[in-house]
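question for whoever is on the cluster today: can someone run the full assembly for these? two chains, 637 residues total. i dont have access anymore since they changed the login thing
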Amino acid sequence: MTDPQLWISAAELGCFFGLLALSYYVVLAGTGFFNFAVGPYAMVGGLSAAWLVLEHGFELWLAVAIAVVATMALAAVTELAVVRPVQRRSGRSELPALVAVTAVLFAIEQLAGVIFGYTTLPGQELLNIQPITFGTSVILPSDLLLGIVTIVVFGGMALWVRLSRTGRLLRAVGDSRDAAALLGLPVNRIRLVAFVLSGLLAAVAGLLFAPKAGVSSTSGLDWALSGFLALVVGGTATVWAPLIGGLILGALQVFIPFYFGGPSLSYLLLVLAIVFFAFRPQGIFARRVRV
Amino acid sequence: MTMNGSSAPPPVEVAPPPRHRPPWPSGLQANGSLGLGVLAAIGLLVWVGVNGYKQTLLVTAATYALIALGMYIPFVLAGSLSLAYGAYASIGGYAVALISTETRLPLWFGWLIGPVIAAVAAVILGLATRRLSGFYLVAVTLLFSEAFQNYLSNASFTGGNAGLASFRNLDVFGWYPSNEQLIIASAAVVCVVAFLLNRLRLSPWGIVVRSMREVPSAVEAAGTRVPILNLVALAMGAGIGALAGALFTQMSGSIQPDTFTLNLVFLAIFMPIIGGTGTPWGAVLGALIVVELTLNLPSLHTSGTLLVSLGVLLIMLVAPRGVLGYLDTGRKELMRALTPTKGTDG
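^ ran it for u. tokens below:
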């Protein structure tokens, strides 16, 4: 575990998983459920930008802007056209929302396959600088950008949740939707903000991570699982907890296959999930409420 | 007060609840749908005839239907969504394949042992998430599917990525059924499982399970252990899923680690929703519709799955009772229109 190159890979994966987990966290804080469509959102962000540039010759930044806006729109549609009507009809039980989110996940994957094709496209480099080398290790521009953006995003999110009116409302609505509605808080608008923000975060994550190994229409499901695990491992006590969970998961994803061979990773993830779910489902950092 | 057990008050004898007959004639309802199901199955078998392509299609439809039926108890009745059905079906399939190629045991033993192993796996996964929300079960079952497929590809005794093929013929105590007989048997198995699940749904146990989905706290307060009930439902579903895998493997004569894909599992969630969640026959109808749209219509070659997934979203939003639910409403309307009202009877 002394090769710095491995640690760079671990940090890169960790930042990506952390961003995905943060995308989950925003919807979880505002609505109380896990939006599994986060993974497909990230896939759409990365894949649509690459597709616009490679297949249709768009300017890079125009393609990026379209990709981000499209992903945010997708998240808004998830809430407005699927989750909200389904929850309105089914009331309190969670299964309909879970099934709706699963169906959305699958539908986005299929739609992306039909629109963008079934091949893996290389992600677009957003930063055109020389790779930084020290000793035998190299930090690629995409790694650098991912790291910087992750720190900025998490810092911004921590301030937003703590200081802004919308951020505080988000936590109020997530804690108790009924109480928030009773107080006259704009529950529906806050939920929509949470979804759109989650779409933005996922799109950024997908765009920045896509250069690493490319992106295809089936990447979304794995990413959804990784983000979920990162959030469960990290917990939800603070905005930073998803990042910690992401970094732990990233380190495992790099070092376990390195020392124990490729197939061991999926076994270990399963064991990790079972252990965490059975013994510490609230994650490492859990919010304690004094009563 | 002594520590002696004899001085403790005797345990309160709880009288067993009186066995109310449900307000609907359950046997009649279940038998009626069985009749319709068998008629439809016979119709399909006649349509299939000896056409090899159609026979494959029917076996695939029967497999889909069994996987969807496996999901019926945990997902529709008990309200727990598990996505490990690809792995359960693989367990059933590999059990048949391994018994056939590695042992001299009778082949039906493989049909028996697969569902048992799948049920044990389902219980272990369910135990880890038994007090958590359904999202955790979805995640852990997905991870299990990935890990299990990985294991099948890398283990040596499963034949790796190439899988296993060329099995012995199925013998049932010395009787070797022909291919046509096996195809009829596949349709019959689906009908029997759907019929039994329908009876189970209408039984007292089924009613408890359905109440558990709606108000788990009430069922828990009434003295029934909700987590145990959930585990039983998950185990039964996994067993039926493994049966589906055994059927498909036996009929197709080979199995690979990626025979039962995650796409199939997603489609299997959608089948009861499309057909109608009111009865297990809805899952069977949904399976037929999905097979028709994704496999049998060449014009929809790549977009059939997309059509199904968008169609499911639409059904959830505007027609939550599915196709059978609407047919049933139509039937009742028709009956009411045809029956003379009491007033005119005099």
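summary bc i know u wont read the tokens: The mean pLDDT of chain A is 88. Chain A touches chain B through 39 residues (CB under 8 Å).
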